[in-house]
Every structure is written in C-alpha cells, then in structure tokens.
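Incident log, support desk, overnight shift.

02:14 A customer reports that sequence design results differ from what the structure should imply. Their input is reproduced verbatim below. On-call engineer (initials T.W.) acknowledged and began investigating.
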C-alpha cells in the first residue's frame, strides 16, 4: 500500500463524495467517472446504430459484403472508423468498471 498526502482543501472537497473512508471515496469517484465515460461511448454508438439501423457487427458484415450505400464516401468511411473506435473504447470502460467493482 502506498501513502499519499492530500491538501486540506482537497480533503474538504471530498466530503461530498459518498463513502466513509478515503479509499471508498476515491473508488466511488473512479466508478462514477468510468460510468460517465461508458455512457458517452454508448450514446455515440446509439447514434450510429440509429443512423444505420444495425449494430456495429452488422455494419461491418454489410461493409465487407459491399452492401453499404456510398461505402467509400468520406462520411461513411469516417463513421466506420469512429464507430469502431467507440466500440473499442466501450470495451475498455466496461473492463475498467469491472476491475473497479471487483476491488470495492
């Protein structure tokens, strides 16, 4: 275990965070931040799913099957890359959330 020191000002600000001990407060902050980032990813993913009427795996299969209209347009290629990135980021945040919760 490592020891850290926090300013009185920061300790005072942490009073509003749920938890009795400092470790609990920090864990709650980490969980809240991770949930927020996960929701941001899921919101972006939902936008793509709504626009294309399918999930990313379906879109990827349709892409490979060349059944995506204007597949090589700048907009569609950009959507593919961004969507793929949000899917990877979502997995990262889910894994982080799992790790935070199993240590709590």
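02:41 Re-run completed on a clean worker. Output:
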């Amino acid at each position: 275990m490592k020891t850290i020191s926090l300013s009185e000002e920061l300790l005072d600000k942490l009073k509003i965070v749920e938890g009795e001990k400092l470790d609990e407060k920090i864990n709650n902050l980490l969980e809240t931040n991770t949930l927020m980032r996960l929701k941001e990813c899921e919101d972006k993913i939902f936008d793509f799913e709504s626009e294309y009427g399918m999930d990313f795996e379906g879109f990827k299969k349709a892409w490979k099957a060349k059944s995506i209209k204007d597949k090589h347009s700048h907009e569609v290629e950009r959507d593919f890359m961004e969507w793929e990135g949000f899917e990877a980021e979502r997995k990262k945040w889910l894994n982080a959330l799992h790790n935070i919760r199993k240590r709590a």
